[in-house]
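Lab manual, section 2.4: Encoding a predicted structure.

Procedure: take the sequence of the chain (411 residues), apply the prediction step described in section 2.3, and record the output as structure tokens. A sample record is shown.
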Amino acid sequence: METFPILPPPATESPTPWNWARKNLFSTWYNSILTVVCVIIAFQTIKGIIVWATTKAQWHVLEANLPLFFVGRFPSESYWRLWIVTAIISLLGGLTWGNIQRQERLWSPPLLILIGAAVVGAVISPIDLTSRLYLLGIIIAAAASYAIGRQIHPNPPSPPLSKGGLGGVSWMPAVWALSFPIILWLIKGGLGLAEVSTNDWGGLVLTLFLAVISIVLSFPLGVLLALGRQSSLPVVRLLSTLYIEIIRGLPLIGILFLGQVMLQLFLPPEYPKLDRVIRAIAGLTLFSAAYLAENVRGGLQAVPRGQIEAARSIGLNTPLLTILIVLPQALRIVIPAIGGQFIGLFMDTSLLSLFGMLELIGISRAVLANPSYIGRYAEVYIFVGIIYWIFCYSMSLASRKIERSLGVDQR
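Recorded output:
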């Protein structure tokens, strides 16, 4: 019987940076040329940005108008309300984030780096000492609430048939919903507090208010429209389909124009004029709900038919079947699409600057209209872009964490 010699295993190179670069960047002569060209271009670009930022940029435009960017014309004597609102949101955000990450390491290096960067930013920020202390206190409170949130057990899981449902995080929307009246009372006033007109709202405060309220209102409306389009009742299905298709066929700028300019013309003369913030929220909500409905409808169609048949076999009626079995699985499936929709809605608030609303982009245009800051477009819009990126990336990161915690990539 013929025997074959036993060959040694193939030699492997040690995973050093040089070996990785030789394999991935300099494997051939044209890859080497391309790598060198890209390095030169990147070096020149980064060098130009650093030189501009350190020698030519006039960052005093940001320092002088920092309150405007964040709170607009909100009365300075009422800033304490906004600090309390920020503290409430930070505490709830820490609890929610900690509960989502219950199965992961408590203090991971990225989280420690983020907290350290936030502390350093609060210390060196060009604001008064009182505001710095407020920021440091909020950061510490958020970190503590994150640790507490990891110890709070979520609600009992969803029914057995709705594998991967949303029962484990059902307490979060309820807690956030209960905080909204308090936040609105603090910002707007009333019940003993001096009322602050919405004309004085602006900057980041107005942007966040518009985005958050529109997201909260558009989500249930979108779910109802998706269920209506899947309904067996012809009238409900027809009305839902007409609404979705008509709204999706119109640009958002047109809907905002109808809400801000034309809506009041269709109301009776004796009808009180609607606040422009309410009209803006209505336009954003109606537009986002139509797109959200189609995302949820895709999730409803992806629920296995066997789940529905199994639920009917144990005697569940249609409402219970939808609420306990179908809807949790459908929402779980479309979490990435819903997250993208919410990020888009947050950025769409910038269109309201075209109607004279001083949200983040609107306040930037007002600052640039000042003769003292003419031509400082790069400094202002880089700063605003960083703010938008921070919030959008945070929403994207939260969406991915929820996906992993619910096992969206698992069947």
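Check your result against the sample. The longest helix spans residues 377-406.
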